[in-house]
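for the recovery benchmark. tokens below, seq after
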């Protein structure tokens, strides 16, 4: 698509439709199983029309993942060094859980990419994500050394938060089958709050 002019309303609408359709197709079939034809059909556009906006399946995927990572990492970026450490972490857990509830397809799309060895994301993981995790791990370590929260391996703490919250999106079918009709998000917020509050609250508090 030409870069010389600002996109029109129709162009913005079509790009949004393509990305929404791609999210559905990629999260269902994975990158390898998805085709441009499937995405075009899901978006209600012809294949040539879709290719006017994105020259390839890879271009669509890269745009989608760039948007996803921006949204997905915002809660971690928001950990406030000047906030109450325990409440900052507990709020982070709840934001991650809410994202699994609101954006299950995005979570599954990211998980599928990682399971495949992250061939299209490894550079981002090794640079941008690594830098953010190092920054926030150092913050967690400072809070632990100051006695504001119990000591734990900061990176494994982050990994556990990711796995416990994103499980509800990535394994949604299994979770709901085993919950026998109960919405898993009814009890999950309290459960995770209790788990991490007990784990991280210093014993003298």
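predicted aa per position
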């Amino acid at each position: 698509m030409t870069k010389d002019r600002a996109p029109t309303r129709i162009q913005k609408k079509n790009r949004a439709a393509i990305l929404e359709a791609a999210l559905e197709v990629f999260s269902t079939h994975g990158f390898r199983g998805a085709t441009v034809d499937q995405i075009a059909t899901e978006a209600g556009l012809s294949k040539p029309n879709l290719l006017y906006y994105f020259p390839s399946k890879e271009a669509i995927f890269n745009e989608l993942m760039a948007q996803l990572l921006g949204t997905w990492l915002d809660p971690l970026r928001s950990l406030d060094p000047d906030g109450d450490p325990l409440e900052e972490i507990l709020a982070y857990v709840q934001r991650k859980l809410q994202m699994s509830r609101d954006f299950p397809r995005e979570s599954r799309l990211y998980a599928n990419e990682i399971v495949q060895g992250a061939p299209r994301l490894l550079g981002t993981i090794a640079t941008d994500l690594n830098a953010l995790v190092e920054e926030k791990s150092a913050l967690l370590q400072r809070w632990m050394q100051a006695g504001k929260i119990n000591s734990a391996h900061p990176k494994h703490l982050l990994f556990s938060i990711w796995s416990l919250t994103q499980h509800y999106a990535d394994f949604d079918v299994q979770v709901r089958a085993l919950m026998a009709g109960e919405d898993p998000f009814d009890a999950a917020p309290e459960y995770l709050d209790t788990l991490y509050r007990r784990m991280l609250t210093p014993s003298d508090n």
